[in-house]
Design goal:
This protein has about 120 residues and is mainly α. The chain is built from 4 helices and no strands.
Length: about 120
C-alpha cells in the first residue's frame, strides 16, 4: 500500500490520504491520548492554512476563521507528502509525527466534509 497518497481524482490528493489514514480515526475510542495528539496536529494544520491579514499583528481573517477549504488542504497535503517522499519516510506500525499529521488531515476532511460532491 502506498503510504504517500498521490492518487485519486486529478488535483485532489485528499482521497488517497483518506483511504489510507481515515481508518485510524476509529482508534480514538481505544487510545485517549491519540485524540489529544490528533487534535493538536489538526490545530497546527488549520493554523498553517488560515490566511493572514497583512500588517503588524498578522491576525487570522475573521471571515475565514475556522474554515478549511479543500483546495488549501490538498495543497498542504501535496507539500507534506512530497517532503515525506524526499526523506524516504515509510509508515510505521504505530504513530509518529507524519502519521499523526495525516490522521489529523483525515479528521479535518471528515469535520469539514471536504470529499462531498
Amino acid at each position: 500500500m502506498d503510504a504517500l497518497p498521490h492518487s485519486g481524482p486529478p488535483g485532489c490528493p485528499l482521497v488517497g490520504v483518506a483511504a489510507t489514514y481515515m481508518p485510524r480515526l476509529s482508534e480514538f475510542s481505544f487510545e485517549p491520548g491519540l485524540v489529544a495528539a490528533v487534535d493538536q496536529h489538526a490545530a497546527a494544520v488549520r493554523d498553517a492554512l488560515m490566511p493572514l491579514v497583512p500588517g503588524p499583528r498578522r491576525a487570522p481573517r475573521e471571515e475565514s476563521a475556522g474554515m478549511v477549504r479543500r483546495e488549501d488542504l490538498a495543497d498542504y497535503v501535496l507539500g507534506f507528502t512530497d517532503w515525506l517522499a524526499e526523506t524516504d519516510w515509510s509508515e510505521p506500525v504505530g504513530y509518529d509525527f507524519a502519521t499523526l499529521r495525516l490522521t489529523a488531515v483525515c479528521w479535518l476532511i471528515r469535520e469539514h466534509d471536504l470529499l462531498a460532491g
